[in-house]
Amino acid sequence: MKEMPQLIVMLTYNDMTVENAVEVFEKCKDSQAKYFGMKEEPLAADEMKKLYSRMKECGKTTALEVVAYTDEECIKGAELAVKCGCDILMGTVFSDEVNELCKKHGLKYMPFVGNVYDRPSVLDGEIDDIIEEAKGYIAKGAYGIDLLGYRYVADAKLLNSRLVEALDAPVCIAGSVNSYERLDEIKKTSPWAFTIGSAFFEKDYDDDMCTAINKVCEYMKKD
Question: Which domains does the chain have, with CATH numbers?
Fold first, then answer.
């Protein structure tokens, strides 16, 4: 039996952390979601560190998703994740240096795959190439893959299902999970996890964010 995909609540809108992330988390800390995360911009590092510490006090597993495409930016993002004491580093274009930094500090590294660009991120590339790229990163010791499935310029459903099926490692489908139809697709594909950020702030699931989080969690439990 496949395990239920986990929701990672991202306190982000359009691939940027919301300015009132602390306030939003406090309102949602007692929701059913076990995983919470942010992006590397625009909050100050000290503010992020305090918020991640607060998340852990509340029993949450924490993630930082770094939307970066150069070696310098990716390493800087990884160092920020270390400083903040995050559990999972998502994003970055795969880097051997970032991979080694994550291993050294016990972070679970889940890099992007495919040709990722812009912010909010866009993904393109041939599905077969993306799968082989992902397998290569796992072989190098990455924990899993951050797949921008619904940001894919071609057949997102096909990419999601094929990558999850082909990879013997955790896959997180990140970005633009903004409808119950897509939640149904995620149930069928059964990745390890998926993220929702902007869709909560755009009130796609409910006007109240905490209620929306719980609605998504309950929906994922249904057969």
Answer: 6-221 (3.20.20.70)
